Amino acid sequence: MNYLVAAMNRIIFSVFLALGFLSLEAQKNSTLIRNVQLIDGMGLPARHADVRIKGNLIEAIGQLKALPGETMIDGKGQVLAPGFIDTHSHVGGSLKKHPDALADLNQGVTTIIGGQDGSGDGIDSIQSGIKQIPIAVNWATYTGHTDLREAVMGEKNLGRAATDAEIKQMQVLLEQEMRKGSLGLSTGLEYAGAYFSSRKEVIELAKTAAAFKGRYMSHLRSEDVALADALDEIIDIGRQAKLPVQISHFKLALKDDWGKSAQILAQLQKAREEGIDITADCYPYDFWSSTIKVLFPKTDYTNPLSAQYAVDHTFDADKSIVTRFAANPAYAGKTVTEIAAMRKETAAQTIMGLIAESTAYGKAHPEASGLEGIMGKSMTDEDVVNILAWSHTNICSDGSYGGHPRGFGSFTRVLGHYVREQKIMSLETAIQKMTSLAAEQTGIKNRGIIGVGYFADLVLFDPATVKDNASVKTPQALSTGIHKVWVNGVLVYENQAHTKKYPGVFISK
């Protein structure tokens, strides 16, 4: 009798399960997001749909019925998009201290790409760090050219081109990182650690990345006085190494070039027609953030003529702000013109003096880092708009945890200022640039699209209110209009607060 009852119960349970009345998995690990305007990341028009998350994946899309016990979320007609991918991020360096990654989540970013400008953490370090301190966002990386140079040539011996033997040693190290999942080679050719490298050196390393179907990402050797040569170099690297090449945070930083963005983009388009896969990323601001030294393209920091050239041609001293200065913290937050007035100098004399004082401070305090920084006004909004609108440009932040407002506000600034207010592109196009195009141009798979089987990195936001609030004075102000963010199926951000969940993973190529 007991056997018959047990058998009957099993039959009834199986029927209920088949009819969908019971679903143990749904009760345990399923979320249904209903009533949203779905923008899937592929550039297609928004459509009304529901999305089901199962575990860390998207399981179903359409007009869906709720399963018993699954978590239900009413999207209230807001936009559900793939989580944004920041193709040029410096937030990785702050994740041990800020594993909640609010700089990213507050603007809808779910994946960051590190190793930029030629420097970053090695893959073993990243993976062990995530095991020790879990993080709220995904992290992928390029391998830094300057890091390779320092490992082989020594940190104090970088003021020259590498020898053939040293290039081969760097190739071995790059190959090791490529096998571990690096996206490719990143260079910061304008910075002192790589400025003296030869084009041959970079091409040979790019060939190693190409052998593993990797990519090349570059802070160009010049973004101002020698931009034409720098563009020729990256195109030549793509041609000879036969791999995709991307211009980091593309800008026209020389006053003489302002207004020429359409002409220069046509040059890049011509290279694409020749078969060179050249692309770009861009952040939505007309001022940059770096070291004062980049104002001297020839690294001749004591040359008065070069200093005056910088003032006249490469930045606006009245609107460029020194963000940090360890040798005299009172300078932080002031423009170069204001500091010059304090010192009773010209702006040209001041930038030479600041570099000399910062260098001396660094020698006296070898343990110190981040000795100086500047936010330089040297772009026009017209050129920024043209670069953002180019069909082969994806959105990036080039941001860190504080400093320039781009670290907390780039993606929401595009959605609010450039899409809703300036209408330079459609919302669907902007999201494509932040998601599937970003994934395509970095080699990331199974992210950047809301599709069945893709990882459930998602952002729910209100297109009518989304807005960046970060500014020069309040660079860590959180964006408004970003209501919920999921990383790998886990809700990590809601109502401008972190949920204390840390599902981020290392993403290998």
What's the gyration radius in Å?
A: 25 Å
Secondary-structure-derived class: alpha/beta
Shape: globular
Largest sheet: 9 strands, mixed
Q: What labels describe this entry?
A:
509 residues; alpha/beta; 9-stranded mixed sheet; 17 helices; globular; disordered N terminus
What does this structure look like?
This protein is an alpha/beta fold and 509 residues long. The chain has a domain at 290-378. Helices cover 37% and strands 20% of the residues. It contains 17 helices and 22 strands. It has helices at 2-19, 24-29, 102-105, 123-132, 145-153, 164-180, 192-195, 199-211, 227-241, 261-273, 304-314, 336-343, 347-364, 381-389, 406-421, 427-434, 436-442; strands at residues 30-38, 47-54, 57-62, 71-74, 79-82, 84-86, 109-114, 138-141, 143-144, 184-188, 215-219, 245-247, 278-282, 287-290, 321-325, 334-335, 372-377, 393-395, 458-461, 482-487, 490-494, 497-498. The strands form 4 sheets. Strands 1, 2, 3, 4, 5, 19, 20, 21 and 22 form a 9-stranded mixed sheet that branches. Strands 9-10-11-12-13-18 form a 6-stranded parallel sheet, with helices on both faces. A 4-stranded antiparallel sheet has the order 14-17-15-16. A hairpin with an 8-residue loop joins strand 15 and strand 16 (334-335). Helix 16 (427-434) runs parallel beside helix 17 (436-442). The termini are far apart. Mean pLDDT is 93; it is low at 1-27.
